[in-house]
Amino acid sequence: MKQYHDMLMLILRDGFKRKDRTGTGTIGVFGHQAKFDLRDGFPLITTKKMHLKSIIYELLWFLRGDTNTKWLHENGAVRIWDEWADENGDLGRVYGAQWRDWRGPNGEHIDQIKDVMERIRTKPDDRRLIVTAWQPAELDKMALPPCHCFFQFSTQELPAGNRRLHLQMYQRSCDTFLGVPFNIAGYALLLQMVAVTLNMEPGVFTHTYGDLHLYMNHLEQVDEQLSRELRPLPRMNIRRRDSIFDYEYEDFELVDYNPWPAIKAPVSV
């Protein structure tokens, strides 16, 4: 994951200080891109241990169309959403709602994930294989507007007649120490899941960043992480399902993950 370490060093070298919504303060750059070829291994950083269970369950939660933290709690998964949920665990019209139940101005309900899966299957050369979570008309109904707000698939025909699937995601706001490693792994996992489901080869995940920043209270942790030597990437094995909506946590097996210990840092809300 040299690409990730390069991002940290870019921010430390070229970043400018900014005030932010949380009051913590950041240092960052605007506009960057990194590519992760899944043939090189699954892009889960090795210079600090990542909680893979939370990454998997959050993605399954999005794909369920769920917007309440109850299911995450029941499965002992990611807790970060608690910071924004109301007393009943509700988050409003966040990712799951937009992915699975986009509401149009004329009252139509659009399942974007179902639609994009069908279009990849039937029109693999289409340039409109897009899912968006940025719904301007519903931003005031979201506990937190989407950070990773837009993604697009593309397929590549191979000499043998099969196809390689690629994915690009645009992220408007990027907490580089805590959030970005989670986002890289989550979308790489989505790419691999869709490829496996459609009998395609997983290709390259391209991560495009808007405001790429480090919080000022994460800088010591970043120095510690950069002092650690990179280790080989693990592999992700996924059991094939007929539908992207049928996957369960037990369908995923991470192999040969040998990370350095976790590094704790506060979340700015």
Plain-language structure description:
There is one protein chain. With 269 residues, this protein is α+β, with helices and mostly antiparallel strands. It has helices spanning 2-14, 52-64, 70-74, 95-100, 112-122, 179-197, 219-226; strands at residues 16-18, 26-37, 102-103, 109-110, 130-132, 148-157, 163-175, 201-215, 235-238, 252-255. It has one domain (2-172, 189-255): Thymidylate Synthase, Chain A (2-Layer Sandwich), CATH 3.30.572.10. It has 7 helices and 10 strands. The strands form 3 sheets. The protein has a 6-stranded mixed β-sheet with strand order 1-2-8-7-6-5. A hairpin with a 7-residue loop joins strand 1 (16-18) and strand 2 (26-37).
How is the largest sheet built, in terms of strand order?
1-2-8-7-6-5
Specify the CATH homologous superfamily.
Thymidylate synthase/dCMP hydroxymethylase domain
Overall pLDDT confidence: 95
The CATH architecture comes to 2-Layer Sandwich
The quaternary structure here is single chain
Number of separate helices: 7
CATH topology: Thymidylate Synthase, Chain A
Which H/E pattern describes the elements? HEEHHHEEHEEEHEHEE
Distance between the termini: 27 Å
Strand content: 25-35%
Large-scale geometry: globular
The biggest sheet, with number of strands, parallel, antiparallel or mixed sense and barrel status, is: 6 strands, mixed
